[in-house]
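QUALITY CONTROL LOG
STEP: pairwise intake check
CHECKER ROLE: data steward
CRITERIA: each record must contain a sequence immediately followed by its structure tokens, with no blank fields

ENTRY 1 OF 2
RESULT FIELD BELOW
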Amino acid sequence: MSPVHQYETPYATTGLEIPGYRVTRTLGVVRGITVRSRSVVGRIGVGLQAFFGGNITLLVNLCEQARADAFQIMISHGAELGGNAVIGLRYDATELMPGITEVLCYGTAVVIEPV
């Protein structure tokens, strides 16, 4: 999201307000969607990690990257609308078919300024 005023980075929060700032304009719902699957080699690695138990780092990394991608797409959509923050941020994930998952990040793009 391109910063408005003096902000260097966009604000994003699961809350409906940002302490020290006020919403001056609400721009609407923004979202970022990514669809991910694991490669055949990755599935073998996941199978091996699952066999030995513990944290399945290959899947953790895949989930983290999918969420980061969806977040960045959402931030870009907010910037296109002229916003400098997103409030009410949420994530959702849906398995579209075995091994293929959609990750959605959404919130409300707003313009904020210091109180």
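ENTRY 2 OF 2
RESULT FIELD BELOW
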Amino acid sequence: MRLRTREEAQALYRAGEATVVRVLREMDRRIHTRERQVQDLTARRDASEQRVKHLEDQGAKNSRNRSKPPSTEGFQKPASKSLREKSARPSGGQPGQAGQTRAMVGKPDRIEPHRVERCERCGRSLAHRPPEDIEKRQVHDLPPLRLTVTEPQAELKFCACGHTNKAAFPEGVNAPVQYGPGVKAAAVYLKNYQFLPYERTCEWLGDFFGCPMSAGTRANLIGECPTRLEAPVRQIKEQITQTPVAQFEESGSRVEKKLWWLPAASTANATYYDLPPKRGAEALEESGILPPFAGRAMHDFWKPYFGYECSHGLCHAHPLRELIFVQEQHRQDGADTMIDCLRDIQAAVAQARPTADPLPKAQIRNLEARSQRLWDAGDATPPLSAAPAQAGNKRGRRKKTKPRNLLERLDEHRREALAFRYDCNVPCDNNLAERDIRMMKVPQKISGLFRREEGAKAFCRLRRYISTARKKARGARDAIARVFTGDPFVPRCNTS
């Protein structure tokens, strides 16, 4: 096209220049849009990778490598990999071990003679011939169980003065017909120790004792028993607060469709439970064990415990399980070495514990030096999780890796984590408290929750009493029967 004037040429040039600018701006906008999309997709990918890693870690947790109950694992149980060393001895009875069987009693309740009437060979009568010897066997069995009915009879006598005199009934006999302490103890025992539901307990009493009982009567008996246990429960609490070493554990419990807290304190001779509605320091304060406790508290790494001025000891089993998780899921080679070190310390203490003598100072120094070398080598563990590719100037601290958290916790609380190394009277774990609290969880597996606060509190008080009586070598049923006779078992304070 031929341009006629200079002005037309300049206008055409400016129009072309504007078009180029517009095209460049459009290209620049598209480039920035693509960059933002790439950044967004990269961030999403990083978040997805972190989520996948988190879900993989969650899926890899089981009762073998974390503090997780086996009942939550379903039908596919993890492969067993015990930390215990395999013994050279075969399982079962060892050669030379004396066997045990039920011994015969000297005076059986009933004798059933089985006589020889005739000779098996010739048929001659032997009825009047005395035996040369008698071979004995005994059958131990239960007799038919039925209630025995005792009828107290109070005399009435009239005096010449016109007054009517009546003999007093025994204490506790208040109704025309009532159950005795044996039946009451059996009902409470089956519900609060064997954890039978109400209906099945009533059926059992009817089938075995011919004692049909309604669920309402059962509930009244169970509500009556805890009210008589104020003195024993108070003594149990005092005994634990005065002991040199106590173990602590905590769990949840559902009461009235809400999650309550269940702290437990245990020794070899006593057990104390509480059931506060809130968790954390408030639950420990309401329990009332730790505030006056001056001994050593064995527990897991739950921070509210460290708010008390008593000595502390950390359960040895928890870091061992976590180290298994670190080795399997995070592929940390040093985890196996640290597991071996902790197991060797535990074995050395177990070997010295029967003599109640502490480990020699030289051996303690060697074990401390070995632990320190492992902690120093663990400093090479990445301190933080991998940063996202497009983290930018995002505020806040980056999350630490699980191996790093475990290493720093063991290093910061090394004295508490290995408290059993310096004192053979200190256990290496808090398994006693975990076993005690497990019994408090069984009723929830049966009924799901406690429907009323009063029932939960009553069960908690009864379990304190029953568990302590069992540790004192008292039968659970006999201990409960003593409650209804007005003479409950009261444990004596013993700080040994």
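INTAKE CHECK: passed for both entries
DESCRIPTIVE NOTE, ENTRY 2: The mean pLDDT is 82.
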